[in-house]
Amino acid sequence: MTTIQPTAVSADAMDVATASAKTPARRRDRHSRPFRKPQPQEIWGWIFVLVPMLLFLTFVIIPVVMAVVLSFTDYAVIGDAAWVGLENYRRIAGDPIFLLALRNTAIYTLMFVPLGVAVSLGTALLLNRNSRAVKLFRTFFYIPVVASTVATATIWYWLLNPQSGLFNIVLGWFGINGPAWLYDSKWAMTAIVLMSVWSGFGTNMLIYLGGLQGIARELYEAVRIDGANAWQTFRYITIPGLSRTTFLISTLLIIGAFQVFDQAYLLTKGGPGNSTLTVVYYIYNQGFGGLKMGYASALSFVLFLIIAVFSLINFKLTSRSQS
Amino acid sequence: MTTADPYVLRLKRASTPRQKIGTTAWYIAVIAVSITTVFPLIWTIVTSLKPEGEILSSSLQIWPDQPTLENYVKAWTSVPFGRYFFNSTFLAVAGVVLNIFFGSLAGYAFARLRFRGKRVLFGTLLSSLMIPGIVTMVPTFLVLRRFPFAGGNDLFGQGGMGFINSYWAIILPGAAGAFAVFFMRQFFASMPEELAEAARIDGASEFRIFAQIYMPLAKAGAAVLGILTFQAGWNSFMWPLIVLSDRDMLTVQVGLAAFKTEHTTDYGPLMAGTVIVSLPVLLIFVLAQRYIIEGVAHVGSK
Fold this sequence. Notes:
Chain A has 323 residues and is mainly α. Chain A has a single domain, classed as MetI-like (MetI-like fold). Helix content of chain A is 72%, strand content 0%. Chain A contains 15 helices and no strands. Chain A has helices at residues 8-22, 24-28, 41-70, 87-93, 96-127, 133-146, 149-159, 166-173, 188-213, 217-225, 230-241, 243-258, 262-267, 279-289, 293-322. Chain A is globular, with a radius of gyration of 27 Å. By secondary structure, chain B is mostly helical. Chain B is built from 15 helices and no strands. The relative contact order of chain B is 0.12. The interface between A and B is large, with 116 and 120 residues.
């Protein structure tokens, strides 16, 4: 990836570098020479970052500040905004639909994160093998990532069709009468979790593969000589060796899981019976459906806080399992 | 899922009976996973080629009795996919060009130039990656809507719709993503300093040093960034759904989602639309899969 090919330019430049190194005196006082002005990196640095930083200011910094301010108002696009203090936050604590959405999102997260870690680690272990076929299967495993959530949801909408969908046909082979999936409030969230894992595990699998290849071979050799079996090797060498990777992946999954929206919007519109209404979906409905932007901002801050707390818990857990 | 010892698996060729069994088991496992990942896509294509009567009655049949393109015609004519294609392509390409340009410029400055405030700026940029997107969504919408002098607005952002319902609503917030800057910075940071010093002695300007010496060396990185940005742009859904509502401004993803809501049981045209929408990214993936896979692994290792 980062290999730098020695090009004609760099070869020439190296010549100049060595030539100038031979005359250190001239090089040292080049700033004082009248006919060659020094290049002020100070100014160029600012010119280079100016536009990106202005965009960053306008579309990240200002919005974050605005979100804080808005969350203390009843701003609703039409009409003036009034300062309401902590009223929005007080309302959130007693908002039954928010609490339902939070419960749904927590259920989603509790299913999605462990399953996501297990599937991406399992597939990475499968592919961590010295064989020419690995590249082909790696491509096959990664393919769902390429499709958009809209395309994936449309495909799964068809896969999960209660009568003619692939899921229930295959379940029928084993004599299982499959549920109505997206039309059943007990199964709709499970279906969304399965779809999300299917469509996203490829990326994390690649990250795990990188992590696996970073574990020193000598460690495996050492425990093999000690007579460790496959499970012991996995438990005492592979798992600890991957702890940093697992932390990265689980953090990314937690942040993503709490913000799940596309899948629920596309597959079930939050239904049936609000069983797949997620927090972000609720924020979307409040902010852009009901134009209650002040309330929506307060909701998004509460979600931010929840994500931060769970990321911290995850950090504690992964760092404890490391020692 | 097997949890076989990766070290044993890495040994050269299967020779003992035990290893032969292991190899066979491995093939069974990887083929089983491949079926779950690839078969739904094949099934989608097959369904899109089936006439209406065959779709529900013989849904599992792997090849239609009478293959037809009528679903594609139906999808293409009932929804202005041509227009959506143009919108999505324009937005994704603009995103690629701007992110490579601004990401390289700022990434280079953060990696190789000395200037005051650099550490604070880069630190702020990096920490912004940890803010969940949902926090800035409502206010970013308002910034775009209230943008001075845009879309009929006056100096105070009153009177018009600002950038809402225009390409700018997608392009501006995503033109110089923190990720692009960080990604390119990693490439420039790994390059030798001597090249710049030599050129500086020759009197080259800082812009020339960037554009003619370092940028050509970062071409591979820029290509990976471009591919990842294109995929993300082409596939993005929630933000276009929020800021673009005019029927002529929709992207392919929002268009397909609307199509799905309107034709809930028209599986044939739905699958045809899915194939149409996925074709560009699938094509790019097939052509550039080595770069994509290595790029993702590279990002993950940082």
